[in-house]
Amino acid sequence: MTVLYVDGDACPVRDEVYRVADRLNLRVFVVANGSRPIRPTGRPNVEMITVEAGADVADDWIADRIEAGDVCITSDIPLAARCLAKGARALSPKGHNWTTDNIGSALAGRAVAEHLRATGINTGGPAALTKEDRSRFLAALDAAIQSARRRPPPRLTVPPGGF
Prior knowledge:
The protein has 163 residues and is α/β, with parallel strands linked by helices. It has five helices and six strands, in the order E-H-E-E-H-E-H-E-E-H-H.
C-alpha cells in the first residue's frame, strides 16, 4: 500500500496532501525537526514525526523508511534522489515530478547554485506558491499515487559515496 512521506519543515501543501490521503485512505508521515512546530491534524491516517535538530535528520528518517511504491513530497533535491534510489516516487510542492531522467541535472544545478551562494552571489529564493502550482501539485500527486499502485518506477543508480 502506498504511503505518503512529507518533508514537513517548510511544506506549503500539507493540507492538499491530507485531503488526497483522506480521499484515498492513505497513511501519511509528516516529518519535521521541530524548528517550525506543526500542529497535529487529528486525522487517524496522519502521523506527525518530530526528529532531533540537525542537518538532514528529517531527510534521513524518510529515506530510511520509504519503499518502492511510496511517494515523498519534498523541495529537497538530494532527498528526492535518495527516494528515487529506493524505488519510490518524489514530487515537489509545485508539482514537479522528480524522475531518474531529471534528478541528475537537478542535483548538478543545485550544486552550482550552492557554489554561487558560497561566493556571495544572490541566487534568489523560491517563488511563492500560486493557485496554479497547487493545482499542478494535486494533479501530480494523484498521478504519482495511481502510478505507484500500478508498478514501481525504475530505481536510480546511486553513485559511489552517495549524493
